Amino acid sequence: MGAAVLVALNSRGCVVEGPAASYDVELAKSFKEAAEAAGILVGAAVNPAWLRDEALYLDVATEQFSSFTPENVMKMAATQPERGEFDFSEGDSLVEFAEGVGAVVHGHALVWHLALPSWIEEFEGNETEWRSLLETHVKTVAGHFRGKVASWDVVNEAFTDTGYRDTIWFRHLGPGYVADAFRWAREADPDADLYYNDFGLSGDPGKLNHVLDELEAMVDEGVPIDGLGVQAHVELNSPSNATLDACVGILKERLGQLGLKLRVSELDVSLNRDGRYCNFTDDLAAQQEHRFRSLAAKFLSVPQLTGVTFWGFSDAHTWIPHYFHDPDWPLPFDASYRPKPAARGFLDALLAAGGS
Ligand code: XIL
Q: Residue 6, SS3?
C-alpha cells in the first residue's frame, strides 16, 4: 500500500496531496535591487488599508518593490462614488506611502467596464452626455494625480480577439472612446506614460495581434499611447511555453515597430483553478518556482519591458480564490509573508538579466 490519500471534507472534494510545504527560502537580494540592476521596476498591486493595518504586509511591500499599483482604490467605483463627487483619499494614501519609500505609482484604471459605481449603471443620457461624463472622469482623476503617478492604465480590457468588447462604454460611445480616453489622459497629465492593459495577451497570439492592430491604428493617427500592459494571470502549465514564446516573439517584433513600452502588469501563477488541491505542497512549490523563473526570463528578454508587477504579493491577499472559488497560492510570498520558492525563481531570473 502506498501512502494514504486523504480526501478533504470540502464540497469540491479536493485532495490533500501530502504534507504542507516545508521550504526555508532566503533571498540573496531584494526584488527591487535586482530589478534595478536589470533595468526595470518591480511592483505589486496593493491596498492602502493593509499597508496601514498589517505590519508584515507593510514590511515586505517596503523591502521588495519599486512600483505600486492600487489594486482597487483608483477604479471608478472608488474615485467617483457619486456623480460629480470624487474621493481620492485612498489613492492619496497610496501615493504618500510610495513617495515615502522612494517607489513610483502606476495608476489603474481610468476606463474599465467593471468596478463601476452604481449611479453609472443607472445613468440615462445621450451619446454627448455619456462622452462628457467619461471625459470628466478621466480628466478629473488623471488631473488629480498629475505629477504623482508615473503611468496609467488608461483603458483596461476594451478588446476581444477580433473586435471591441461589448461594454457599457462601447455601447454608449462606439469605438472612438478608447482613443478619446488616451487624449483626455494626456491632456490632464502630460508627463505620465499611458498604457493600454488587457488579459489574454500572453496566452492568445490571436488576441495579442488584434490588440496590437488596434494600437497600431491609434499610433498611426497620433493618439498618445506609450505602452501595452500584459496582465499575465497565468497557471502552472497554461499558457504553454510554446504559446508564451509565440506571444513574446510577437511583442518583441511589434512593440519595436510601434515604439511602445511593455509592462507585465498583473502577474500571478495560480495552481488550483480546477480545485484539485486542498493544500500547498513542496511539489507545487517547486513547480511554481520553475514557472516563475521561466516566465520572468521570457518577459525580461523583451527589450521594451519597463516593469513587472505582481497582482498582490502575498498569498494572504490574492484575488484568485475569491474569483475562482478554490484555495490557491499564486504569489511569491506566503500567507505568513515568508518568501516562497517562487520568489527565488523570480529573483534568479532578475539576477541573470542584471548580469549576476
Ligand atoms: C480585481 C481585484 O484584485 C479584486 O480585489 C477586485 O474585487 C476585482 O478586481 N484584472 C484587472 C484587475 O485589471 O483590476 C482585477 O482586480 C483583476 C483582473
A: strand
